[in-house]
Amino acid sequence: MSEESKIWIGRDGQRFGPYDEATLRTWINEGKVSALSLAWRDGMAEWRPLHEILGIAVPPPMVGGAAPALHSDLPAPPDLHWAIIFVVDLFVGGLMGLVWQFVQASWIKKIDPASRATMWLVISVCLLPLTWVVMVGVMLNQSYTASRPDLGAVAGVMAYFGLFFVLGVAMLVCRYVAMFSMARSMREKLPAYGLVPEIGGVTLFFFTHYYLQAQMTWVARWRRTGLVAPPAQKAVFWVVFGVWAGLMLLFLMLVWAAMFASYHAG
Predict the structure, then answer these.
(1) Which of 20, 76, 164, 228 is the most exposed place for a label (fewest CB within 10 A)?
(2) Model's pTM, two decimal places?
């Protein structure tokens, strides 16, 4: 094996090696080297966990639910169950979740100083009042158009609707960029502490900060106990969504049935 294809191992700010893959696999099986150690080989842009370079699906140190003894070095993540945030959001119109996203971004900044999640959240929040202002403009123009149904008035309403749509989309995009940025930071930075999270992109898209909080709660538990099993909650989000979607469908069917019966009764 050529010198360029061998692998360097990083530990305590120093690098050791290079070693060939067969030697490293043997050492991992013998417990001499952690599969979660940062490693590098010629041609790589940055250091990555050794198990990724070797193609090991599950790092051996985590088999059986035990994690390496690096968890105490990790800054304490926000540890509040996502269901509590969701219930409070129901009563305060989503304000709890809005604030909690900044709490999450603050922790991400501790493990990834290069993170810009907070910046994207600030932009998203700044766009929110603008959408409200434009919404008021739409309502006022609609009232004006009712008395002046000429082309100019209609064009004014359409312009406000267009601006409202653009601002709303921009606000959502900034929020999603922040969410996926935080998820990327967790994937890239947590292996250095001895933890490899599995964050589903589709689940994150639909459940955003609630799902991200489930991941952070899992990290907090691992930090306290050193255990990675059971994994972070994921299926429960789809179960809750399925129940909610089923109830909404049932409600719409009942409304349609009532309207149908009322129409034929008349």
Answers:
(1) 76
(2) 0.65
